[in-house]
Amino acid sequence: MRLRKFRVRAYRCIHDSGEITVGDLAAFVGRNESGKTTILQALTLLNKDEQVSDLDLCDEMHEELKDEIRIAEGDFDFNQHEREILKEKFPSLPDIKKIKLFRTNRNQKVQYEFEDIELGEEKNKGLNSWENFSKQIIEFLDTIPNHLRIQVDTKFFDDVVPKNQEIFDSEMAEFSNQFHVIAIQESSVIEEWEKIYEKPENQFTNLLSGESEKSALENFIASELHPRFVYFSDYKKIYGNINLNEYLREEKGERTDSIEYVEEFDKAETVRNLFYLAELDMKELDEVKTSPSKCIKLLNAASNRLTSKLNPAWKGDPIHVDLRYNPGNILSVVISDVHRDGTITNTGLLNRRAEGFKWTFSFIVNFAAETQRSELKEAILLLDEPARNLHPTQQMGISDLLKNLAGSNQVLYATHSPFMIFDYTPGNLLVVELDKRKHLSRIFYDYWNADDKTLTPILYGLARGQIESIVDREIGTNSRPIIIVETISDAMYLNAFDKFLKDPNISMNPLNIIAAYNKNSVLPLAIFYRNHGYRTFVLLDNTDESKQISAQLVSNDFSSIQTIFFEREGKKLESIEDYIVLEDYLHPVNQTYEIKLRQEGFSNITPQDMASKEGKGNLEKLKKIWQEHSDDDWGEFDNEEITRYICEKITLEETDFLSDKTKDQFRSLYRLIAERIRQYQNVNTKPNLDKFQKAKI
Question: Does the model's pTM come out above 0.70?
Answer without folding.
Answer: no
